[in-house]
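>> received
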Amino acid sequence: MAGRPRSEVARRAILRAALDLCARDGYQNVTMKGIAQAAGSGRQTVYRWWQTKAQVLLEALTDIMAEEVPPTPDGDLVAFLRQTFDLANGVAGQVVVGLMADAQSDPGLAAELRSKIIGPRRRALRAVLERGALPADVDLELAVDLVFGAMWYRLLNRHAEVNDALAEDIAGLLGRIR
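>> returned
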């Protein structure tokens, strides 16, 4: 990219501001102008580095939030689900729900979201399930879809909680598949 190189301090301030605004106001109410103001940066700086709020928030999620997430629990399905559900109930969930909505009309964003967020979480859950949570003849991809499907259905429809009880219920159901 031509022009001055990014200031790492300014970049991180912008990413943090985007996450804070999303947590406070919701994804739909975040604007590039608001991000710039909250970060103490000029709008031109924000637009020089990112074209859309989706790009800012996706980078914030994969950069800033990734530093704050503990390592994925190794082999413990309930612990993995609890961690995932905790993330989904916080700003990370708000960002991903907003990005998923925007991705419905933006194939490039959809591909990036699958590559940077959805794909890695699916691989992590698949690895946990492969370590013994399911019999060998169970379709792992379908099991992953069922787990994340329940989570996203509840998050999007808000008809039931995404919490520790759901983590234990899902693990219990998967454990009964024989």
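>> The mean pLDDT is 90.
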